[in-house]
Amino acid sequence: xxxxxxxxxxxxxxxxxxxxxxxxxxxxxxxxxxxxxxxxxxxxxxxxxxxxxxxxxxxxxxxxxxxxxxxxxxxxxxxxxxxxxxxxxxxxxxxxxxxxxxxxxxxxxxxxxxxxxxxxxxxxxxxxxxxxxxxxxxxxxxxxxxxxxxxxxxxxxxxxxxxxxxxxxxxxxxxxxxxxxxxxxxxxxxxxxxxxxxxxxxxxxxxxxxxxxxxxxxxxxxxxxxxxxxxxxxxxxxxxxxxxxxxxxxxxxxxxxxxxxxxxxxxxxxxxxxxxxxxxxxxxxxxxxxxxxxxxxxxxxxxxxxxxxxxxxxxxxxxxxxxxxxxxxxxxxxxxxxxxxxxxxxxxxxxxxxxxxxxxxxxxxxxxxxxxxxxxxxxxxxxxxxxxxxxxxxxxxxxxxxxxxxxxxxxxxxxxxxxxxxxxxxxxxxxxxxxxxxxxxxxxxxxxxxxxxxxxxxxxxxxxxxxxxxxxxxxxxxxxxxxxxxxxxxxxxxxxxxxxxxxxxxxxxxxxxxxxxxxxxxxxxxxxxxxxxxxxxxxxxxxxxxxxxxxxxxxxxxxxxxxxxxxxxxxxxxxxxxxxxxxxxxxxxxxxxxxxxxxxxxxxxxxxxxxxxxxxxxxxxxxxxxxxx
Length: 629
Description:
Layout: E1 5-6, E2 16-17, E3 41-43, E4 50-52, E5 57-58, E6 67-68, E7 72-74, E8 85-87, E9 106-107, E10 113-114, E11 118-120, E12 126-128, H1 135-153, H2 163-186, H3 196-201, H4 216-219, H5 224-251, H6 258-271, H7 273-280, E13 286-288, E14 294-296, H8 308-323, H9 325-344, H10 348-354, H11 356-359, H12 369-386, H13 390-411, H14 417-437, H15 445-479, E15 485-490, H16 493-510, E16 515-517, H17 525-534, E17 536-543, H18 551-562, E18 566-572, H19 580-585, H20 592-600, H21 605-618, E19 622-624
Parallel strand pairs: 15-16, 15-17, 17-18, 18-19
Antiparallel strand pairs: 1-2, 3-4, 5-6, 7-8, 9-10, 11-12, 13-14
Helix pairs in contact: 1-5, 2-7, 2-14, 5-6, 5-8, 7-12, 8-9, 9-12, 12-13, 13-14, 17-18, 18-21
Keywords: Membrane, Transmembrane, Transmembrane helix
Protein name: Tg protein
InterPro entries: Toll_tir_struct_dom_sf, Tyr-kin_ephrin_A/B_rcpt-like
């Protein structure tokens, strides 16, 4: 008999089919007992047919029940075939084994919790709490208030802070944010591998993961609601410690300004803002299960929006969001918007003391950067919740970090150069981590391929859009003469700097004509020459003794000559026309670098000589006595 058929006795004219979707391991079966379900299917009961294996289950060839795959969990349904398969946090907590099996020391739906008086380990198991296992939590509860008091005592006035201390403070805050960003990246749908997984575990303390200090050995139970409430209370309790110390100082006759305590509290929340936002958003981060339900990513044993436990977590999360990240973001936004007005009105001193954490580390003209960091961190915290497609999470996170990197490189907002360089390096390293982690994504191939294909259309199309818009703008500006400036004053600062400044002021007072003074932009000669070429109606050359020997003046005059810009020589007393021999000697006074700069901008030495001859002999000179009439 062939596969799937058997003959109960020899010499039978016809083989009998196994039926019920069963097969035989090989041909020549002689008994119905040799019929079994093939790989990928299982026999639900003696009276039913072989059924296809559910997602998250592994069905071996035979008549035995299915087993759960690593990373999935289902309740033992020995009396029926209605399997409810749930995803676990990882494959270590739910090993491939019989239905309902959890790693050692774990219990509950989806192996969500450790047993009473147990604490979780990195390998997915939970170990019994020993006599010293509560010590990390006790040390944390004692050390954190002491550290806060020391921070309050070591307060330094802004006028006493050196650049080195300012750099140290800036780099410390950058490091805290980078570590918290790693914690956010860790929450993406990425299958992290050793040894980087071990390093990422160290970020748990700064992201308020209380399992790092074995909090269950203090509480005695692994309750998700209790741990979540503790995470939400971490920063409020720290601020409460600062306020209590301020009250004690006031009672002891050594009062300090309340703004100092508020600034320290703001500094604390600013430093851990990303962790606070991540913690409050945990109940909103849900993932689908194979049984068409959804459960929390952090606690897969809690069904989303259909269980009392999740309802309690949502209530706590809403209270936490309104009282911490959203309230802090609103205060920071208001303070930043009002900053120019309050400083300009003379009420800025108290504002600076209270909100120094928001402005002090940045350049005065970049005072908005602190608020930008808060909004960026808010988006980073929202990403795991708002984007649930693994294939899109990494590109979106990379886009956020790249935008932040571009803005930081463009503005250099930190007050010290070293702090700016460190910020660039840390953001670049975070992007490298994302690039390296991309192949480790947990992908649902059908959904992720379609979503990623659609998402990648955006940057591909934007390449063309950005390039075409830039080309269109350049072409339009080329043919549209704006002429922003009526007069361009070309002068030598040492010979006529004060005179030209006075001329600019007088012209502005008595005429609507805008005046451009070249000495205001000497660091960018290319920009100067383009102003002469495209945005100036007339160039006034203030002729003094040393003007023609200055390379930038030579470039301006030559550019005006080559582009037929109206040029008016204004001859000051003391200036003498140069003969041909003197003109030829002028380039010899320029350095090779100055000659190279002029050549790069299309100003040839031969053109300079021709422009000087044109300026001296072809144009009518106006006399300007600098010592009065």
